[in-house]
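Not sure how to ask, but would you mind making up any protein sequence you like and the C-alpha cells describing how it folds?
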Amino acid sequence: MIDSLFIINQTGDIFMEKHWKSVVHRSVCDYFLEAQHRNHVSATLPSGQLSNVPWRRTGVKYNNNEAYFDVIEEIDAIIDKSGSVVSAEIQGYIDCCIKLSGMPDLSLSFVNPRLFDDVSFHPCVRFRRWESERVLSFVPPDGNFRLMSYHIGAQNMVSIPIYIRHHISFKEVGAGKIEIQIGPKQTMGKL
C-alpha cells in the first residue's frame, strides 16, 4: 500500500515538473505506473497521449479492420394469459470490440431513439450530437468497451421481440403441470 502511494505521489510530481495537463486519462497513468515497475520513467509521453482523444492511441494499424457491436437487452415484462404485454421495461447495453486502423470516426443511428429514457455513454461519444440529432457519433477506443447503456420504460409500451405461450393444468391435489413456450416474433420492435 505504501509503495502504491509513493508511486502515485512520484507520478504526480512528474506531471507537475513537466507542466503537463492536470486532467489526465487513465491510459496515461497506466503508462507511468508500468514504467515505475520497470524502475525507469521516460522523459516524454508516447505520441498522442495528451491529445483531444486520450482514450485512443495514435498510429494503430490492423491487417483486418473489424468492428463488432453487441446489443444486450434485459427484458422485465408482465404478460397476461392471452400473451399480450401488460407492462415491459428494457435495460440495454451496447458493448463494442473495435479493431480499426488509424483514427476512425463512427456514427450509429437508431430507428426510434426517442424511446430511450435514461442513457449513459462512454466518454468517446459526442454528447452534443446525441442531444441535437439523436445519433451516436464517436471516435472509439481500441479494443473492448461499453459504448452505451440505456433504459426503456414501461410508459413507452414497446413490443417485446419474443412471444410467450403458457399452459397450466392441475391433475390432482398437489400435482400439476406448467408448460411455457418461448420463440422470436417478427415485429421489428413495432406494436
In short: Strands lie at 66-79, 85-99, 106-109, 118-121, 135-138, 143-152, 162-172, 175-184. The chain has a mean pLDDT of 79. Residues 2-37 form one domain.
